[in-house]
Amino acid sequence: LEWDGEGTLLDIGCGAAALTIRCAKAFPKAKLVGMDYWGAEWNYAKEQCEANAKAEGVADQITFRKGDAAHLEDPDETFDAAVSNFVFHEVRSAKDKRDVVREALRIVKKGGAFSFQDMFSQKALYGDMEEFVEELKKEGITEIHYIGNLEKKLDFIPGYAAAPWMISGMGILYGRK
Q: The whole model's pTM is what?
């Protein structure tokens, strides 16, 4: 995330807070909000996030709350930065997953930074991403980059270890609003 760490950051779909905590450590001056739906089928909750943040020494930087990524409670342009890691495809309250991306971008301040990772290269979920990126530019996103099929471009999964059941179609969408 190309961000100076000044201001506030929202982690959309924080789960057990691993990314939220990593961001707090990377940006020690920032205030962070970790938000998740924490449905009954998930084995973590707000209390676990708070305990994890405390154990990592960043509890004073972070607040956690329950929420829906398709319908964020925040006014437009509330946060200086936003991140999300493999959440948007899980949001059941939005049929079109591109709407979840737009909702995440809505709460980022003009000039703010964002970095979202999801299964963006799966056309069944997001359609043509190059086309979607162009739409977002027309809607006012000033700088936006898309890298698709990350699992084929990064060396973190050696070819011999890749299996058919592994996540495919990973992509990252990042930039500035």
A: 0.90
